[in-house]
Design brief:
The protein is 42% helix and 18% strand. With 406 residues, it is an alpha/beta fold. The two termini are 24 Å apart. The relative contact order is 0.14. The model has no long low-confidence stretch (mean pLDDT 94).
């Protein structure tokens, strides 16, 4: 909570996919924390190492965003609280009014080039009859209006929408001027929804985080533009479950010179993310992100495959079963298995808040372009070659220590 000694900030948190389970859990978490009704466990920036940083507090956040669906926040949030934390109705009623207030700040989203599965889910979009440039301008207008309406000091944009198909990168995606030429020419293949959101955020001076695997979000041209405009950006693909364990566990085998022969992973989930990933085109983006981590850490190629299955009965619960086959002394072959079970939204939501707080801090300190200190939050951290989770956390601690001493 804000204290008298500290000047209160007003930080907008504009969530792409604002009616989804992760967004609803983010909001529920903030509203419960404000009222002292929940612990802050799971939030990295709540650890003592970050206590001296002037990060935004829960009281500072103002929520807004966009979505392509009309389901109310009340419905999404109550389902998440009931299924994920077995909350009673009395606890939900304590924050229902706060959720209702956010409704007015959720705008229609775009699903340009998001694939058939996402298109089928859409019932409120800005696509109809608009050119690519007009869609981009509409997202900019939404961000600007949100900032003005609430008198915000800054706005952080975070993409927590469903995974898009892979965007084939063309020359225009590597050059700022060429990219905008294609937008002006209404080239429908030049951008996906995530591209337009990221572009609009950077043009409006809003720090941008891509929590999804969608590679269309932070194309090289937009990273370059973020550097030029002094806007912090980072992605891709939030690291919340199986890959988190993999990036922490794989270095153990290296440290004992145990050669990994095979690492098979089976992921099962039943929420909207799982439904979208049931489409092979959308799933390709996720698999590409998850599959690369092991080789990046080991420095050699082991047989490794990740499988994703949609199991509707699981709801928001995510189960990952991993089988690791490795070789030890005298060529002996041994194995390790683990099962990870967690709630997708519960694991992701505190990281979204961490990223919002750290992105706002970076922006306030005049940083622009990629934020390598945030590598540990992502499966595919842009501009970073370090994939070992412990080493990535040290990068964040070093950054925090430097900020503390300034």
């Amino acid at each position: 909570m804000a204290t008298d000694a500290r000047q209160k900030k007003k930080v907008g948190l504009w969530l792409i996919g604002a009616r989804g389970s992760i967004a609803a859990t983010v909001m529920v978490g903030v509203f419960l924390l404000r009222k002292g009704l929940s612990p802050d466990s799971g939030m990295v920036t709540a650890a003592p190492a970050f206590a001296s940083l002037d990060l935004p507090l829960m009281d500072d956040f103002v929520f807004g965003g966009c979505d392509i669906r009309k389901e109310s926040l009340r419905e999404t949030a109550w389902r998440a609280m009931r299924e994920d934390i077995s909350a009673d109705r009395g606890l939900f009623d304590r924050i229902a009014g706060d959720l209702d207030e956010v409704e007015a700040d959720i705008s229609p989203g775009t699903c340009r080039n998001c694939g058939d599965m996402i298109q089928e889910l859409a019932d409120t979009t800005v696509n109809g009859g608009k050119t690519v440039a007009e869609e981009l301008e509409e997202v900019r207008r939404q961000l600007s209006a949100f900032r003005r309406k609430h008198g915000l000091d800054s706005v952080v944009v975070i993409n927590i929408a469903s995974t898009e198909p892979v965007l084939p990168l063309a020359p225009c995606h590597h050059d700022v001027d060429m990219f905008f030429e294609r937008i002006a020419a209404n080239d429908g293949d030049a951008a996906q929804a995530s591209t337009l959101y990221a572009c609009a955020a950077i043009m409006e001076g809003c720090p941008y985080i891509n929590f999804t695997p969608s590679n269309g979000a932070l194309i090289p041209a937009l990273i370059r533009m973020a550097e030029q405009k002094g806007v912090p950006v980072m992605g891709n693909d939030g690291k919340t479950g199986e890959t988190l364990v993999k990036s922490a566990l794989a270095p153990l085998f290296l440290s004992r010179n145990l050669r990994i022969l095979s690492w098979e992973g089976v992921n099962m989930l039943g929420n909207m993310d799982g439904k979208v990933l049931n489409d092979p085109k959308n799933c390709q983006s996720k698999l590409k992100s998850k599959d690369q981590v092991l080789q990046k850490i080991l420095g050699y190629e082991a047989h490794s495959k990740v499988h994703i299955h949609y199991v509707p009965s699981l709801g928001d619960q995510k189960t990952a079963w991993d089988f690791i086959h490795f070789q030890g002394f005298l060529g002996a072959k041994m194995s390790l298995q683990f099962t990870w079970q967690g709630f997708d939204s519960i694991l992701a939501a505190p990281l979204v808040l961490d990223l919002a707080r750290l992105a706002e801090l970076a922006h306030r300190h005049g940083e622009g372009g990629l934020m390598p200190q945030l590598a540990g939050f992502f499966k595919s951290p842009l501009g970073v070659n370090e994939y070992r989770h412990a080493a990535q956390y040290e990068m964040l601690l070093d950054y925090a220590a430097k900020k503390k001493n300034r």
